Amino acid sequence: MPSTRENHSNTDPEREDMNPTRRIIITASLMVAMFLAAVEATIVNAAMPTVVSALGGLSLYSWVFSAFMLANTTTVPIYGKLADLYGRKRVFIVAVVLFVGGSALCGLAESMEQLVFFRIIQGLGAGGVLPVALTIVGDIYPFEQRARIQGWFSSMWGLAALVGPFVGGWTIDHFSWRWIFWFNLPFGLLVISIVAAFLANRKSDKRLRIDIVGALLLMLSVFTFLFATQQMGSLGWNAPAAWLLLILAALLLTAFVLWERRESQPFLPVELFKSRIIYSSNLTAFLTGIGMFGAISFVPLFVQSVLGKSATLAGLSITPQVLGWSTASVVAGRWMLKSGYRPPILAGVILISSAAALFTFMDAETPYLLVLGSMFILGLGLGLSMTTYIVAVQNAVDADRRGAATSSQMFARTLGGAVGVTILGAVMITRLREQIDSFLSARQGNLDPETIRQLREAQGITHPEGLASLPEQVADQVSQILSQALDSTFFTAAALSLLALASAYFLVPGGNAKSLAADKGD
Fold first, then answer.
1. pLDDT tens-digit profile of 24-67?
2. How far, in Å, are 108, 229, 320 from residue 103 at the CA level?
3. Which DSSP letter does residue 234 get?
4. Whether pTM exceeds 0.70
5. DSSP letter (8 states) at residue 275
6. Closest of 127, 132, 117 to residue 40, by C-alpha
7. Chain segment 196-224, per-residue pLDDT in tens
8. Dihedrals φ, ψ of 258, to 5°?
9. SS3 of 511, please?
10. Residue 290 DSSP one-character state
11. Boundaries of each Major facilitator superfamily (MFS) profile domain copy (predicted)?
12. Which of 231, 255, 338, 345 is deepest in the core (most CB within 10 A)?
């Protein structure tokens, strides 16, 4: 079989035709797209306690995140194949249009059910924005610059961390939570205009097609699993329906694996995972996503509901994590070129596990500064590891498979986040319901019907204003109950982060970045 080096020249045609000015303009527009994704994380996480208080439906709290992640996750590999088949430019523009349209609809939601549905549409677009943007960067920059540029791309998360929480918190406090979604519209339209005008539509010369059956099987298996964990949170861990759903999810996943093994152009190319650096990076990213991306979604809830801080301060709790991410991403770009992928990945996962341990000690007496410090440590770990994963998988394949490889990494990360936020959400809801039922049983006859209804439906208890409407003694007890539920959530996240540490230690290979690249001359 001819080698990769023989089949693919060392120079990318797209790179040859691009003058420096055009490259800078395209890079800037892609950075704006990265900024939108970062702002989405900081603003929506911070706004959710207020949104739940306004729309109700605490049982659907985790689904606002997991619905977005599910749509995001299952479409990432599809976008990777579409970008290789029809060109990065067309596919990227379609993704941004869906993301912006979904954002507009989220701002119009009148119930939690509607918000979850519109978040699915938003996620369908987000599934293409990040991986295709990073694939374009891989196309237009040579190997020596790729790691540095990827690090600078991640610095957009730092800028969004500074702007997002202030703008989001101020908007929620003075206007409406709806504007946190509408914020994406003007920036998204700007990105579409620039990319349409300046980026060439690079695509593969190979005859490719989309594995629709594989995509549907994986999407159904992931959705069934997430729905099963949500049902466990609502009905209890012993609910027969939930366990039947888990069995169905396992059968669908088995069918997906069997189908992919016989498919000539699979949804997730099996040959990619023959590379040790690809399967180890993706597995570790998946495990990290389960533990820590899920936990991040609940930190603003802890700050606003347990510590009693404002929406603005809840938003600011995300800032150190994103600042740490952007700072460490720049460091990772330089570190991996000197020492290979293993050192920054290991250092990153150790920092993530340390932050997870700190989360387990937080309670109603925790100083706000300790929350910020823990989030900064978490961000450093994510920046070192996640940036290295992306560059590692991109350099492990040739240009024609770069879209699929990048998407496989983004898929692993977002799938982990979707699974994590759903599992942790189920843990929180289960623990919360147990504590509330116990509290109500001990105080039968001493509470008015409206208070009982509010507690059973968990209506307003995630927001300081909602707690203020309860009798003082009840409000204090409910705050403690929510703190205990979140403590169980963070403890579960910490346990899961240890699995990521084991994966990084035992599986990620040593060696310099050049020696692990598919094309040593790229």
1. 888 888 888 878 876 775 677 667 777 776 776 666 666 777 67
2. 9, 26, 25
3. H
4. no
5. S
6. 127
7. 887 776 655 556 667 778 878 887 887 78
8. -65, -40
9. coil
10. I
11. 26-512
12. 345
